[in-house]
Amino acid sequence: MSIFAYLPALPPFLFSTLVVSGLASKALHIGLHIRSLPFLHFVIYSPTLVLPDLLIITCGRVLLQYPAPETRLQWLSTCVGGFFALVTWGASAIQFGFFFQTGAEVAWTASNSFLSDPAAMKILLSGISTVSAAATVLALVAWLLHFQLYNITGRALEGIRDLCVSGYNSCKGNYQGRYTLLSAPSKSWINSVDIRSARRAAFIVAGCLSLLFLELVRPAIPYDHLSSALPLALLDAFNTKSSTLEGCRNPSKIFPLWTDVKPVPLAEGWSRPSWLPENMHDGFSRWDVHPDERGERDNPSWYLCSGGDDGGLYNPKSDPLKISNLGREIYDPLKQAFKEHSVAIDNVILLTLESGRKDMFPMQPDTPLFESLLASHPEENRDSAIDRLLSSTPIAQMLTGEHVRDSHGKLMDFSNATWKDTAQEGMGGLNVRGALTGSTLTFKSILGSHCGVNPLPVDMLEESLLEIYQPCLPQLFEAFNKAKDDAPESSIEPEKVLDRKSLTNQSESLKFPWKSVFMQSITDDYDRQDILNDHMGFKHKVVRSTLKDHESKYQAHGEEINYFGYAETELKPYIRDLFEEAAINKTRIFLSHVTSTTHHPWSTPEDFEMESYMGHEGTVNHDLMNNYINAARFVDNWLGDLMTMLDETGIANSTLVVIVGDHGQAFGEDNKDMTGTYNNPHISNFRVPLVFRHPHMPRVDITANATALSIIPTILDMLVQSKSLDSRDSEIASAVLPEYQGQSLIRPFASHVRENTGAHPDEVKHDDTANGQTKSVWNFGLINAGGSMLSVTAADLPYRLILPIKDDFEYVFTHLGEDPGEVSPSKSWSFSELVEEAGAKFGNEAATWLEDAEKVGKWYVNDQRRIWGYREA
Does residue 633 carry a pLDDT above 90? Predict the structure, then answer.
C-alpha cells in the first residue's frame, strides 16, 4: 500500500502549496513595480501576466493526481509534481524573506554564485528567521485552502476537457473518458444542451484568442519580466556563467558624443619602455612586449576577436572619457610643503571602510540622514540626541578636519577619544567631499582604489579570472623593488628609528624594498577574493584563516562576531609587528586593510558597550540603524588604535594613510522602499569618504565628484612631488601616472574641459557651445551584484541616471541638487517618457543630459567588457 493511502491529503496539499506559493510570489513581483506602470496599460495587459502561472498550475494539477498512484508512471508524475511544489514553496519563502529584509526581490541569475560559495551561503542563512516565517505562513494558507483549490481546479479542467470531448463526439460519436482528475468528480454536464456547450466553447476560444492577442501586442519591457513565473525564473539560477576569455577582445565602438579623440593603435611606436624592469608581467602586459615570443603576432591587434585597427588593450590616448589634470598646478599650500621637503612618504596605508558612508565619516548635521535620525526622537530629547550622534565618530572628525559643534554651538570634546591628533593646526592632508564609489559590491570597488580600473559590468567578481588592465599598487611597488640594484647594508642601528631629516642628499629609506601586505579579520574566500588578491600582487596576507591557525604567531582570542569572521581588533599584534618592521628602516610598507564590522548584521564584540542612538518615532524600525551606528563607532575607535600604533612606533610622520569607503549602506531611514546594497541604486549606497592623511601635509578641503580611480594617481603624484622615490622609481611612477583614468587630487580637479578654446573650463558656462565642445568627467557605478544596473553621473552637473543593463529594471532619474536624498526619484520603464518627465521638471538641460548619459552608459558597458577581454558565451 502506498504512502498516499495513509496521507490522502498529501497530493491536494502539495498542489495547494504550488498554487499559493507561485501566486503569492507573482503578486509580490508585480507589486514591487506597479507604481512605475501606466495604470491603463497594467489593467489591459494584467491577464497576460498570469498566463505562465496558469500553465504551471495546470501541469501541477495533472501531475498531482488523486487517488493514490497505482502505476510507475503515476508514481513518477506525483513525485515530480511534489518536487516542483516544494521547490516553489522554498523559493517563494526566500523571496518574501529577502523582501522583508531589504525591500528588494531576489535576482535568480546571480544566485548560482551564492549557492556555490560557502561564505556566501552564510549571508543567505543570516535571514533564515524571516524565510522560515514566510515559509510557515505560505504552508498554513496552503493547508487551509488545499481541498478547495484542488477540487475547484479539477472541476475547471474537467469542464474544459468535456467541452473538447463534446466537440469530438459531435463528429466521431461516443467517447469513453480515460481518466478522472477528481477522486469524486461531479456529475458531468457533457450531455447537456448542445447550444449551451457551444456557447461555452465559443467563450473559451474567444478568451484564449484575446489573451493571445494581448500577449503578442504588449510591450516586451517590462511585461515579459513581470509575467515570469517563479518555477521558470528559478532556472536562471542554474545557468552556466558567461565565459571569460583572456587575450581576445572585441573592437571598441565609436564613442557616441564627441569624435575629437581618434583611435591610436598601440602598435604605433610600440616598444618595451626603458623604465620597465625586467620580468615584469602582471599588470604591465601592454608594455611588456616580446615580439620574438609572439612570432608574427607582434602587435596588440592580435588581442582582437574580430579584427580592427585599434588594439584591444586599454589605451589612454584613445580613451574618449579620460580627462587629465596633470597640466594644472599643484595646490599652493601643498607645493610649498613639497618644495620644503617637509613631507616624507616612506609608507602607504590604504584603509577600506566596509559600508563606509560619507555622511557618517564623521557624523554630520544638516544631511538628509541626520534629519531622519533626529526625527526618531521626540522634540524635547533632540538636543541630547544631537550631542550623542555627533560624538559617535571623533576619530573621523580629526582625520578629515571636519570638526562639528554640539547642540550648544561648542566644538566636540575629544578628550576620551582613542587617539590624540598630533598634527599642528591647519595640517593633516586632503579631505574630499563628493566622492562616489565605482561599485556597491566591495571587491569590484576595491579594484578602483587598488588598481585604478573600472570594474567589469557583470554579476559578481568575474574580474578574478582575468588580467587586471592596469598595474595595481602592490605591482607598482614591486616594480620599484625590481628596478633597484641590491640595496647595501644600512649602517643604522637595527632598533633605532630613522629620522629622514638627519640624512644628507637622498634618504636611506628610499633604498629599502617595499613590502605589500593585505589584512582583514574576516574570510577571504567569499566570491574569489583570495584569487583577486593574488592577481593584485599581494604576497603577504593576514585573514580569518590566519587568525584561526594554531601555527600562526598570533591567534584570535575573541569570538567571531558575524558570518564572515572576527572583529578588526584581532589584527592588532600583526599590524604592530608590521609597523615596527617599517620603523627600523628595513622595509617600506604598503598595507591594505579592509574593515568589516560595519557589514550586515552590524555585530560588535561582547565587551563593546552599546549605546542607544535612535528613538522610537516614525514607522521605521530603527534597530538596524542603531546597530550600524554602534558598529561605525567601533570602527572609529579602531582607526584611533591604528593611528596610535603609528605614533608609538615612530612612523606616523613618514606614512600616508588613505581612507576610502567601499560603498555606503542604505537603511529604512534613507529609503523606506529598499534597504541594503543588493539591486538597490539609492544614492546613500554611493557617497563615500575619501581622505589622504599625512601630519606634515597642509589641510586641503576638496569638493569634487571624484571616484576611487583618483587614489593611485594621487599617491603616485605625491610620491614624486615629495621626493619620496629615488630617481629610478620616480621615472617609473612618472611614466605610468598619465596612463591611469583618474585624476591626481593634489591638483585642482577638472570636472569638465572645453575643447577648441583657450578658456579655463571653469570660466565658461556649461551650455556655452560657441566656445567649443564640452567634455565632462563621467562617473560610473555598478549596483551590487554588478550586471543589472549602472549609475551614471557627470562631475559637473547634479543629475543622476540609473541605467538598466538588463531588461528587468527601470530607468531612474534624480536631480541631486534638488533632491539630495533621492526621496522623489523619477522612474519609468520607457526611456523616452523619463526624458519627457525630466524636461518638464528641470528644463531642457536635464533632458539633454539624460539622453547623453544613456548613450554614454551603454557605450561604457560594452567598452569595459572589451577592455577586460570579456565575452558572454
Answer: yes
> Which residue in this structure is represented by grid cell 588594439?
311
Helices (H), 276-412: 291-294, 332-339, 368-374, 382-390, 394-400
- Partners of residue 519 on adjacent β-strands: 542, 593
Closest CA to 356 of 413, 419, 435, 411: 435
User: What does the pLDDT look like over 162-188, one tens digit per residue?
Assistant: 666 555 454 444 434 333 444 444 444
- Report the C-alpha gap between 846 and 834 in whole angstroms: 11
Q: What is the mean pLDDT of residues 753-768?
A: 50
What Cα–Cα distance (Å) separates residue 557 from each residue in 352, 567, 642, 645, 762?
24, 10, 19, 20, 55
Give the three-state DSSP class for 398: helix
- Identify whether the C-beta of residue 249 lies closer than 8 Å to the C-beta of residue 74: no
Q: Torsion over CA of 143, 144, 147 and 150, rounded to 10 degrees?
A: -70
Within 13 Å and on the Cβ side, how many CA atoms surround 590? 23
CB 404 within 8 A of CB 362: yes
Contact between 467 and 285 under an 8 Å Cβ cutoff? The reply is yes
**3-class SS at 818?**
coil
Write out pLDDT tens, residues 109-141: 666 555 555 555 566 566 678 888 888 999 999
| Interacting residues of 96 by C-beta distance below 8 A, sequence separation 6+ | 24, 25, 28, 130, 131, 134, 138
Tell me, what amino acid is at 776?
S
Domain boundaries, the chain: 3-238, 332-496+515-749
pLDDT tens for residues 790-836? 999 999 999 999 999 988 889 999 999 999 999 999 999 999 999 99
| Residue recorded with cell 602607504 | 348
Which one, of 325, 383, 352, 335, lies nearest residue 760 by Cα? 325
- Whose grid coordinates read 547634479? 798
Q: CATH number of 332-496+515-749: 3.40.720.10, 3.40.50.150, 1.20.120.420, 3.40.50.300? A: 3.40.720.10
Span 518-532, average pLDDT: 91
Can you give the pLDDT at residue 72?
A: 74
Residue position matching grid coordinates 576619530 = 395
> What residues does 277 pair with on adjacent strands?
none
128 alpha carbon, distance to own chain's centre: 23
Please give the model's pTM, rounded to 2 decimal places.
0.85
